[in-house]
Amino acid sequence: MSVQITTFLLAFLLAIPTNLFAEKSDKSEGTRGGAYSPSNQESSTPDSSSASSRAECPLEEKTISFTLLKPKTSAVPLSFRSAPTFWFSLSERPSQPVVFSLVNPRARETIIIRELNSVKKGLNQVEFPELNLEPGKEYRWSITLICDRNRRDLDIYKDALLKIAKISPQLETQLNKNTDCDLFAKYKLNYDEMTCLLLSSSTL
After folding, report:
1. pLDDT tens digits, 166-182
2. Exposed (0-12), middle (13-18) or buried (19+): which is 109, by Cβ within 10 Å?
3. Which of 14, 48, 33 is nearest to 123 (CA)?
4. Of 131, 148, 163, 190, whose CB has the highest number of CB atoms within 10 Å?
5. Nearest to residue 40, comparing CAs of 81, 79, 5, 86?
6. What global pTM score does this model have?
7. What is d(CA 117, CA 99) in angstroms, rounded to the nearest whole number?
8. Number of structural domains, the chain?
9. What residue numbers bound the domain in which 30 lies?
10. Which residues have a Cβ under 8 Å from the Cβ of 177 and sit 6 or more positions away?
């Protein structure tokens, strides 16, 4: 991993609490979050150029915005993990409920809906060890900020796709023990590379 890419990552993480990465709505996927691009992908810098509007929720005379973190790639991001870590950031610590959901869009199956109890300003990670996502399938995960329980039309919603890669048992064993982010890039597991970089960053 080059010094340049590491510098970009640290700069991105330090900027996360700001409102720079909120994006405009997409009819098929909701409002998409900001993107970090790991190595061997289309770009090695964070993608905030498409941020043209900001989803906001009133918060004690302030506004709150958020973004989902995902690799910048034209394809669906890949992870080998059956229970991956999900990442999002908030410009402020919300007093409103924040809800995570995960669905299998092809089967129209809701896998999990969970109100998050411990969210903070800045970077947040969400893990559900009980998940057992299937290799070869795509999943859609989302974060919803419920601005008013009596006015659900005011909810702020963003989502993203994630695909679980099919790999050999031998490679899975190797990757489960791996701490080298470049190894995930070697096997084009760009979502796992992003997670590795975020977990290894001194800013967390």
Report:
1. 999 999 999 999 889 99
2. exposed
3. 14
4. 190
5. 5
6. 0.73
7. 9
8. 1
9. 3-200
10. none
